[in-house]
Amino acid sequence: MARPREFDRTSALQCAMLTFWECGGYEQTSVSQLTEAMGISSPSLYSAFGSKRDLYDEAVELYAQRPGTPLTLALTEPTAYEFAARLLDAAIVDCTKRGQPKGCLVNTDPLLVDRRDNGRAVIAKRLARAVEEGELPAFADPKTLAEYLIIVVNGLSARARDGVTRRELRAVAANVMAAWPRA
């Protein structure tokens, strides 16, 4: 007969997410760091989650499902300009929020390239619609603009990890938006 779990799996997963995020991703985070943060033993970790990689995948999904993620917020905006501005500002807020690790978990880990590519595709689709609707000039390349926004968001995330303030990051975003193409 299996023994009942002696811990709250949901709380343990939350702790694992924060640990992966703080440490900079899968490879940079040890099982001992995870078990210490989660308050469980290694056998309990493997019993509850299968493997470190399975735990990581669940933690990343939990991270992605947090309310108010930057892309989710940006997609509510009616224009491409407001979309881009909201994406940058929401990323800045998310990367500098008190009580959580700085930066972005998804932007730091090489294992998450597919997730980043999916986000870039969503951004490109939104910007393609803006070109079709005449919001952006016909010569604007949605894929290149999406790549531009992703590069800026990645840079903002990295600088937030380095301790750059929200105010300083917003000044950078303001410069990016000053160069945003208009129809």
How far apart are the first and last residues' alpha carbons, in Å? 68 Å
Q: Which structural class should the secondary elements be placed in? A: mainly alpha
Radius of gyration: 19 Å
* CATH fold description of the largest domain: Tetracycline Repressor, domain 2
Order of helices and strands: HHHHHHHHHH
Number of domains: 2
The CATH superfamily of the largest domain is identified as Tetracycline Repressor, domain 2
Nearest-integer average pLDDT: 94
Percent of residues in helices comes to: 55-70%
Features:
183 residues; elongated; Arc Repressor Mutant, subunit A; Tetracycline Repressor, domain 2; 2 domains; 10 helices
How does this structure look, described?
With 183 residues, the chain is mainly alpha-helical. The chain folds into 2 domains: 9-64, Homeodomain-like (Arc Repressor Mutant, subunit A, Orthogonal Bundle), CATH 1.10.10.60; 70-178, Tetracycline Repressor, domain 2 (Orthogonal Bundle), CATH 1.10.357.10. The protein contains 10 helices and no strands.
Outline of the structure:
It contains ten helices and no strands. The protein has helices spanning 9-23, 31-38, 42-49, 52-64, 70-74, 80-96, 105-108, 113-132, 142-161, 166-178.
Please specify the SSE layout and strand pairing:
Elements: H1 9-23, H2 31-38, H3 42-49, H4 52-64, H5 70-74, H6 80-96, H7 105-108, H8 113-132, H9 142-161, H10 166-178
Helix pairs in contact: 1-2, 1-4, 6-9, 6-10, 8-9, 9-10
